[in-house]
Write a structure and sequence with these properties.
By secondary structure, the chain is of the alpha+beta class. Helix 1 packs parallel to helix 2.
Length: about 160
């Protein structure tokens, strides 16, 4: 082996370890409730909205958008600003709050859009495994070329 191969392998493992630790150890920021199904929080100048749409027959759909400021449209999901771990941690804290207020809900769904990043689906899957006990919840995913749709069911 030459030195650069070993060095590259060490850097990849270290970066992977960093992602694993950082994504699940970030603390949520303070968030607020707009109404029964909508929450919001702010990181730097960006405003994030988290919505629980309970009108669907196929579970409560969870979505979050970010407002990139005046003159720009809201983007669905994370913004690519480098705050994704704090965003995900905050969304999970909000989801826990919503679940405690709505204990009768047994089906949630959300989508990982692959057009921006194919890695997002694997991050979401790891979050599900971390936050939802297999003895209480089951999940399945439906993959297409553009997105992965996750369904989480209370047992």
């Amino acid at each position: 082996h030459n030195g650069s191969e070993v060095e590259a392998r060490i850097m990849i493992l270290s970066f992977s370890d960093f992602l694993q630790k950082e994504s699940f150890d970030s603390s949520p920021v303070k968030w607020r409730k707009k109404n029964e199904n909508e929450y919001w929080f702010q990181i730097d100048e960006l405003i994030y909205d988290v919505t629980f749409d309970d009108k669907s027959q196929s579970g409560v759909e969870i979505s979050f958008t970010v407002d990139l400021g005046p003159g720009s449209q809201k983007m669905i999901g994370m913004s690519g600003t480098g705050n994704q771990f704090t965003v995900l941690s905050t969304v999970m804290a909000i989801w826990k709050d919503y679940m405690s207020s709505h204990p009768a809900i047994t089906h949630y769904k959300f989508i990982a859009n692959k057009t921006q990043s194919s890695a997002r689906a694997s991050v979401y899957e790891r979050l599900i495994k971390k936050y939802f006990s297999e003895k209480d919840w089951t999940f399945h995913k439906e993959d297409s070329s553009r997105e992965t749709e996750f369904h989480l069911f209370k047992k």
